[in-house]
Amino acid sequence: MSNRKAVVERKTNETDIKAEINLDGIGQASIETGVGFFDHMLDQIARHAMIDINLKCKGDLQIDDHHSVEDCGIALGQAIKEALGNKAGINRYGHFSLAMDETLVEAALDFSGRGFLVFDINFSSSKIGTFDTELVQEFFQALAINAGMTLHIRSIHGINSHHLAEAAFKAVARAIRMAVEPDPRNAGRIPSTKGSI
């Protein structure tokens, strides 16, 4: 389980992205997407998943934030998938319920190889500052599909849109941390009766 690192570069007419991750990091992040709230959320993923993330994105922000947010999800998902390799020796599953003031959000995931998102958060506002709240779902959709991760996110309680979004990112991060951690009782074995994921 050594060297669980990856570098992904993605360049389109809309974005130019370089994403570097280390699944065995200490939660350090260097994030520059040009979207302030999104940078803050990606920093939460690094910190709470204990993954080192170095992400630079130059996007067409003169249009809106959509392309940058979605494409960062694609690049990070691809990087996680590459860094996990054949997934031998990992826990595979992760779940976390995260409380943040009046908000409670839970996330459950499986690095199944089958990218899928179930997203059940109703934001009370369409914006967090200048950030479109609908982009939270767009990011997690791109991340899940490209990481090969089945991901469920739902809010149990919550009113404040900032709290709902931040709790979602933190809950997913904690679930990722649990799922990618080595399972000492399953060292070197792929956690599936199929023999591959």
Overall strand count: 10
Distance between the termini: 16 Å
Helical content (DSSP H or I, runs of 4+): 25-40%
Order of helices and strands: EEEHEHEEEEEHEH
Strand order of the largest sheet: 1-2-4-3
Global outline: globular
Question: What ranges have pLDDT less than 50 throughout 5 or more consecutive residues?
Answer: none
The percent range for strand residues is 25-35%
Q: How would you sum up this structure, described in words?
A:
The protein is α+β, with helices and mostly antiparallel strands. 34% of the residues lie in helices and 30% in strands. A four-stranded mixed sheet has the order 1-2-4-3, covered by helices on one side. The protein has a four-stranded mixed sheet with strand order 5-6-10-7, with helices on one face. It has a two-stranded antiparallel sheet with strand order 8-9. Strand 3, helix 1 and strand 4 form a beta-alpha-beta unit. Helix 1 runs parallel beside helix 4 and helix 2 packs parallel to helix 3.
Present the secondary structure layout:
Elements: E1 5-11, E2 15-22, E3 29-32, H1 36-49, E4 52-59, H2 66-84, E5 93-100, E6 103-110, E7 116-120, E8 127-128, E9 131-132, H3 134-147, E10 150-157, H4 161-180
Parallel strand pairs: 3-4, 7-10
Antiparallel strand pairs: 1-2, 2-4, 5-6, 6-10, 8-9
Helix pairs in contact: 1-4, 2-3
In a nutshell, what does this entry contain?
With 197 residues, the protein is an alpha+beta fold. Helix content is 34%, strand content 30%.
